[in-house]
């Protein structure tokens, strides 16, 4: 087995990416402080044709060298928008017909492995701060919560790892 060279991968150009039909998913980052996490979310969003990334509160928007370090240019392909308050993003998404789901351990949360995703709906997922998670007021304004089942001694995952798991799950179910 031979590893493929980068030139053999036939990746989309930036222009081709912009013209592709996107996965009807918006990723909302609620006060994510690490620029490396922000960059990683952009890169994963690019890989799965996510519609947009909404950056809220203390989440730094591009351009920034530390975001670029992990995004590798995905901050230039994936559409993004900045909001001073996450609540503003949630309100706008709901007005546009998105089902908004916080990724959080909460009473009544739906386990990701049992989540039913309707391929004709539009979704937004809210990922929170590395220490505090999604703000309670934001959780309250969402349509529900999704929790990733975990079986070990730790009770959380890095926000960029969480984003990867969630984006993958939505991408495979929405692209059917």
Give keywords.
alpha/beta, Alpha/beta knot, 6 helices, 7 strands, 22% strand
Question: What would your notes on this structure say?
Answer:
The protein is an alpha/beta fold. The protein is 33% helix and 22% strand. The model has no long low-confidence stretch (mean pLDDT 97).
Structural class, by secondary structure, is alpha/beta
Order of helices and strands: HEHEHEHEEEHEH
Distance between the termini: 30 Å
**Biggest β-sheet, characterized?**
7 strands, parallel
Q: Name the CATH architecture.
A: 3-Layer(aba) Sandwich
| Total strand segments | 7
* Residue runs with pLDDT of under 50 for 5 or more positions: none
Give a topology summary:
Elements lengths: L13 H6 L3 E8 L4 H13 L2 E7 L8 H7 L7 E5 L2 H10 L2 E6 L6 E2 L10 E7 L7 H6 L2 E4 L11 H16 L2
Parallel strand pairs: 1-2, 1-6, 2-3, 4-6, 4-7, 5-7
Summarize the structure.
The protein is an alpha/beta fold and about 180 residues long.
